[in-house]
Records
---
Amino acid sequence: MRLAGKVALVTGGSLGIGQAVALLYAREGAKVAICGRGRQALEETVRQIAAEGGTASAFEANVSDKAQVDRMIAGVQEQWGTIDILVNNAGICDPAPFLAITEEQWDRHMDINVKGTFLVSQGVARFMVERGVRGSIIHMSSVNGLAAEADQVHYNATKSAMINMGMSMALELAPLGIRVNSLCPGFIETRLTKPAIDGPHIGSILSSIPMARVGQPDEIASGAVFLASDESRYMTGQTLVIDGGQLIKLA
Ligand code: NAP
C-alpha cells in the first residue's frame, strides 16, 4: 500500500473527484478525513470507505469560512494526531457568459475555490511546520486554469490562481520539507459536469478530447495518489494534467 500510515484531509471528499480520491487513499492505507457542506453525502462516503475496511471521518465544513476550517483542522489533529496529505479539492463551477457574470457569482467562486484553498492550506501547513511533518499538498485545479473556455471566466480565473498559489507555496515550503503540486483534470463525469454531459453540446465537447470520451473520477484519483506518495518525492511546484489529451489539441 502506497499511503500506509498516512493521514489525509480531502476537502470536498463527499462527491465526485474528491470522493474517488478519498476512496483510493483509504485503499492505499491512509486514514482519510473528508469535508463538505452536505452531511448526507459525507456520511455515505464514510460508510463506503468503512465497508471496504478503510478508516474515514467526516467534517461538515465550508472551506470559505475560517472558523469552520480551523475547527476541522483541529478535529483531524485531535482524532489522528497528524495530517500528512492535504487535497484542496472542494470547488464550484457555475457557468455564465462573461458579460452576464454577477458580482455575487464572482465572489462565490473566489471565496470557495481560491480563498478556501488558501485557508485550508495555511492552516494545515502551519500545523505541518510546527510538528515537522514532511507533507504533500495538492491543489485540484483544472485544464481551465491553463487554457481558456467560454462562459467560465470567473471559474477559469480561480483555477489559474490555484496553480500559481501552488507554485508560490512550493517555493516557500520546500525548505521546510513540504511539497505542493497542482492536478489539472480535463472533463470528468461528476455532479459538476452533469448539465454539460446531458446538454446539447456534448458532441462538440467529446470532439475536443483526442481520447474521445469523458474521464472518470478514479482516473484523477490515481494521479492524486502519485502526488501524495513518495513516488513523487522530488516533485514540487508542478502541474500534472490528466485530460485525455484535451490540452494538446488546437481548437
Ligand atoms: P462535485 O461533484 O460537485 O463535488 C464537489 C465537492 O466539493 C463536493 O463534495 C461538495 O460538497 C464540495 N464542496 C463544494 N463547495 C464546498 C465548500 N464551500 N466547502 C466544502 N466543500 C465544498 O465536483 P467535482 O467535479 O468532483 O469537482 C471537484 C474539484 O475538481 C473541483 O475543484 C473542480 O473545480 C475540479 N475539477 C473538476 C472537473 C470535472 O470535469 N468534473 C474538471 C477539472 C477540475 P458540498 O456541495 O456538499 O459542499
Note: Strands lie at 7-11, 31-36, 55-60, 85-88, 136-140, 179-185, 239-242.
---
Amino acid sequence: MNFTTEEILKRMKENVLNHHMDNEGYSDFRNRFLKYFPGLLTNLMDLYGERTDFLYQLEDVIETCCSMFHELQITQKQNPEEKTVGLSTGSRKEVGAVFYVDLFAGKLKGIQKRIPYLNELGVTFIHLMPIFKTPSGLTDGGYAVSSYREVDTRFGTMHDLKELIQGLNRNGINLILDFVLNHTSDQHEWAVKAKQGDIQYQNYYYLFDDQSEIDEYAPFLRDIFPEVRKGNFTFNELMQKWVWTTFNSYQWDLNYNNPAVFIQMMKEMFFLVGAGVDILRFDAPAFIWKRKGTGCENLPEVHTLIRAFKSIMNITAPGVLFLSEAIVHPDEIEKYISVDECELSYNPLLMATLWESLATRKVSLLQKSMERYASLPEGCYWINYIRCHDDIGWTFSDHNAWDAGLDPGGHRKFLNEFYTGKFNGSFAKGLPFQENMQTGDLRISGTLASLAGLEKDLTVETELEVNIAINRILLLYGVILSMNGFPLLYMGDEAGYLNNYSYMDNPDHAEDSRWVHRQTTTCPKKNKNHYSRRIFDRLTKLIQIRKSCRSFSGNSIQIKNLQNSHVFGFSRINMDNSDEKVTVLANFSEGLQVINVSGPVHDLISENNYNSRIELKGYQILWLKDGSN
Ligand code: GLC
Ligand code: GLC
C-alpha cells in the first residue's frame, strides 16, 4: 500500500471521524484517537495490510469505534472518563473471587444476596464463569458460547446482569467476564448460517474441503483434550467440510484472517463493556492465529491482534483492563503482559510451582522460577491463584527445572503420580485429566483441600494430620496473598470443599474430571472446630492483614536465597517508603526449619517478635516486618 500514515489519518478524519464531530465527548475521544491511531494502524497493517480492501476495512474499524463510543456515552451505561478500575493502582486491598453463578448463588439475582459473604471475605473483584447462552448438554462449562449477547436463561437475563453490576458497583466490587474469542459453539448463529451454506459465515471459521489440507497443519498441533477426541479438526456432515476445533468438536475456532471476524468480535467486546464489565478475560488467546508448519499457539499475530483490541479499547473505553488466560510456557506468558496488550495475567507458573514445592517439600524450582519470572512491568499485575475451574498443568520451564537439579520430564511424571495419589506416601487425592496415551502427558483435577491432603486425612488419619493439611492450605494462601499481584480465590476453596465425585453420574460431565472441583458451595460451617470454619477464619484474617500492610501494594518483589532447601522467601517493599519492607518466609516441609535474620522483626500473622534466630514450624508462613511491635 502506497500511503503514508498521515495520508491514511487524513482519510480517516474525512471519511469517518468528522461525521461524529457533534457527538458528546467527541473532543476527548478525538484526542485519544490521535494518540492511539498510529499503533492501531501498524497492528492492523501487519494483519490485513496486504488486502486490496484494507482501507475500507480500516474505515469500518474506526466507524465501529466512533459509534460504540457514542452508544456508550448515550446510554450512560459506562462513562469512559470516570471509569476507574481499582486494580490498576496495584493496591493491596484488591482480592478476587471466581465462581459459577449457578453453583455459588443459583442465578444472577442470587449473587446480590451473597455480596455480604463476599464482603466478609474482603473480595473486591469477581470473575463470573461464563454466563452467556450455550447449547443444551455439552457446553465446556459455558465456554461454548452460542450468543455473546444473551444471558443463558439458566442464570437470568441481561436485565439481571445490569442490576447485579449496579449492586456490585455500590459495594466497590469490579466485574470480570470472559471474552471467549477463540471459538464459538457450533450452535452460534454464525455457525448455523455456515452450516446452511452461507459463504459469508463459512468464512468466519476455518473450514477445509479436503483431508489433505488439514494434514498440512495436523502434525504440528498439540491435542488439548486428547481423552475426548484425537486431533484438532471435526468433520461436519452437513457442509461436507472439516472444521478447525482446537478444544471440543462443538467449539469452532474463529478465523481472524478475515477482518470481518475481527470487526464483529470488536462489537461483541464492546457489548460487554456497554453492559458495565470492568475487566475482560481473554479466554485461551494463545490459539487465535494459525499458520502452517507451526504449533499454532502464541504466534506473533496473536499479540498483534490483542494489541489492536487494546488500542481500540484505549480509544473508545479507556480503563477497561484485559486479563490474559494464556496457560503456556512462561517465556510465552510474559509476552502477553504489557500496558499495550493485557495488563493482567494469570500466574500459572506460581500456581504450578507452589504445588510442586508442596509435593517435594523443596523450594528450589519455585525459587528459580520466581527469580526469573516474578517481576512485571509497571502497570501490569499477576492474578495469583492456587486453584481455578481448570486443571493443573506442569507448565514450568525445563531450563529452570534442570537448574534446580530436576529432570523435567521425569519430574512431571512424578508430580502426576503424586497428585493422583499413586505415589507411595502421597497425601493428595487428585484425578487425572486428559491423559495423552501417546505422549504420556497428563494434567490434574481436584479441589485445593483434596490436593493438599485434607480428604485423605479426614478419612484415614488423625486430628494431627488434619491440622497439617489445613496448614498446607494456609501456607499456599499465605504465599498468593503476599506475592506481587492480586490473589484470586476459587469459591469453595475458602471453606475447604473436598472433591465431589457425583459429576460421574452426569453424562454431560462424566468425561471431564474438572467437574470434580466444580460443585455447589455455601458458607463454612458455624462450628468453630469444623475444618471449613478453621480454614475460612484463618484465611479471612490473612486477607485483613494483607489489606493493612502497605508493602503488599505495587509490584516490588525480591526473591531470597535462604540456603535452606525447604523455605521459600521473598521481600516486598513499600513503593511510597522504601524503608518499609515485609519479608515472607514459607516453610514447605513438615519439619522445623531455622532461619537467621538480622532483627528485630515482627511477624504480622502470629504477632511474635524475633531478634535473630527464627524457628519455623512445619508448613508455617511468616510475614516479617522490620522492627518489633
Ligand atoms: C479456557 C477455559 C477452559 C476451557 C477452554 C476452552 O482455557 O478456562 O475451561 O475449556 O478455555 O474455552
Ligand atoms: C490448555 C490450554 C489452556 C486451557 C486448558 C484447559 O492447557 O492451553 O488455555 O485452560 O487447556 O484444560
Note: The CA atoms of residues 12 and 56 lie 10 Å apart.
